[in-house]
Amino acid sequence: MKFLHLVVRNALRNRVRTVLTIGGSAFLMFVLVFVMTALTEIYAWEGQAAKKNRVAVQHSTGLANPLPISLEEYLKGPEIQAHAQHVQKLNWFGGTYQDPRNFFARFAVDHDQLRELWSEYTISDAEYRSLCAMKNACIVGKSLAKRYGFRVGKRIAIVGDIYPVDLDLEVVGLYTCADDVRLEEQLYFRWDYLDELTGGEKIVGTYWMKARTPDDVAKLKELIDGRTKNSSDPTETVTEKEFNAQFMSMMGNIIGIVMMVGGIVMVIMTLMTANTMAMSVRERVTEVAVLRTIGFTSGHIRFLIVAESVFVTLTGALLSLGLALLLFNVFKLSPAPQFFPYFFVAPPTIAISLGAALAAGVVSAAVPAELAAGRKIVDGLRQVV
Amino acid sequence: MADTVVRVQNVSKTYYRDAQPVPVLEDINLELEAGGFLALMGPSGSGKSTLLNLIAGIDRPSGGTLEVAGTPLAGLSERGLAAFRARHIGFIFQLYNLIPVLTAYENVELPLLLTPLGRADRRKHVMTALDVVGLTDRKDHYPRQLSGGQEQRVAIARAIVSDPTLLLADEPTGDLDKRSEEEVLILMKRLNREFRKSIVMVTHDPKAAAVAEKTVMLEKGSLVAKGA
């Protein structure tokens, strides 16, 4: 700490250069924070899975193909019920609410199993009774309701795209989810209402159920997929985590690109700071020699130069993190609300950013510090800068 | 009999320029007793500064031995030499070499940052050193806000603040006007007489050398004469 003033004064010796370097670092670090936050939000969906022992049954060829309604009877039969409960049909409806940019998940579900299967949701008994009583009823997450101004009694018209029907829904309740506020960004309506609109075609997107114990999952896979293996509609039974991971794998390239951007940002920041440090140290050859004459060791010199570099990169990181926290966590802004209703800078992102800034600072200063510390004192004293 | 602070025995130094050996010092023998004041004189290129650098432990001889403050320098590692300099050597440069981004106070404090002293103790030492050179009122000034003479006095304060065994001065008046030169020389004399500091001063100015107790002449890397 007693060298801090020396580090700071040296860093601010050429203010224009240092401010520009800090500004550059801050900008690049902001890009890194942005990219990492986007990745965090993408993975947040996957992270919530696997906590409730939920299992999904989908067509083995993919989600685009429906499953037969006849499978429901088997799933609700004794063989499966010995290992699972709360079987529910769940269809992704898609569609458009007013504007294609108003993106949020709309699911048609068996309302009678909703509370048991999605037990992390909280909804009042009165609201749940209304859902059961009215065929075109829907419930929405409190967070989604806030964003679009939905309230109990509000009519919501959704134009179909996957299904050639339009929904005329009425909000009967708002649910909350203490586990993760992101899960409050969905709308659930009744599967039998969708079926009625589609002329009773009994289209089932997926079946969901809750395994009685984690050990039952493997048995469920074996039983269900084994039974449908040689049918016209073979199934693939997956855990909720595996189900969500499918979407992650679809984004494989995007995630790769995002990570590459993060890497490029780090390299640019390191090179930029290294250039600044190299110039700064070159201007101080004699001063370094004087310090060593006074009794500073090569280690002291290395430390001072590395600390100066870290000061620059960490200041940039703190500025960018401050701005990001203000924009995303305080003002709750999102760069794309339809995809990222929440865009929170998470503690790991803050830690990684600070770590990256620290690493960039150390790496940037490594060569200049080594050159300065290794130069002979008499050569340094002789040099006229 | 007083202790010997500097003992230089058969010291030589050869530099290499494009693989060609350039002898700078040859067979130098010199001693300085504690509390002594020695002026090293000689024309440019005679090896005065090189000898001073060897005594300071910032350069190593090609041959011979150096013992300063009872420490044989040959056996010290780079780290050991740094610790030796911090403890025993106060160095005064011709061009002052203050750190421009630090105030006079902070410049003087620099050597003390290497000691275990706390902030309050460091402050006491710094203020004492600044008082000795008469610059307590300029402690918050940056080098650019000081005259050449004042800068050199701050540099002297920096050299004495850790109470080193030996003060080494390389042309301390070489870049000063007449008045500042006198001030600095009076100060050097006072440090020697009043504070009993052992001093080796390189100079080519006979007037500066006159404040020393003893003068030695170097020419072409060899000691040619010793004066009172």
Short description:
The complex is a heterodimer of chains A (385) and B (228). With 385 residues, chain A is α+β, with helices and mostly antiparallel strands. Chain A has helices at residues 4-11, 15-47, 70-75, 78-81, 114-117, 125-133, 142-148, 191-197, 216-228, 240-250, 252-282, 285-294, 298-330, 347-374, 377-382, and strands at 54-59, 84-92, 105-109, 121-122, 137-141, 155-158, 167-177, 186-190, 206-211, 235-239.
Structure class of chain A: alpha+beta
Average pLDDT taken over every residue of chain B: 93
Q: N-to-C SSE series of chain A?
A: HHEHHEEHEHEHEEEHEHEHHHHHH
Number of helices of chain A: 15
Distance between the termini of chain A: 29 Å
Please give the radius of gyration of chain A in angstroms: 29 Å
Uncertain segments of chain A = none
Oligomer: heterodimer
Biggest pleated-sheet summary of chain B: 6 strands, mixed
Lateral strand order in the biggest sheet of chain B: 6-7-8-3-9-10
Rounded to an integer in angstroms, the radius of gyration calculated over CA atoms of chain B is: 17 Å
Domain count of chain A: 2
- Helix content, binned percent of chain B: 25-40%
> Span from first to last CA of chain B?
18 Å
Compute the number of strand runs of chain A: 10
The total of helices of chain B stands at 7
Mind summarizing the main beta sheet of chain A? 10 strands, mixed
Summary tags:
heterodimer, A: alpha+beta, 2 domains, 10-stranded mixed sheet, 15 helices, 10 strands, 15% strand, B: 228 residues, alpha/beta, 4-stranded antiparallel sheet
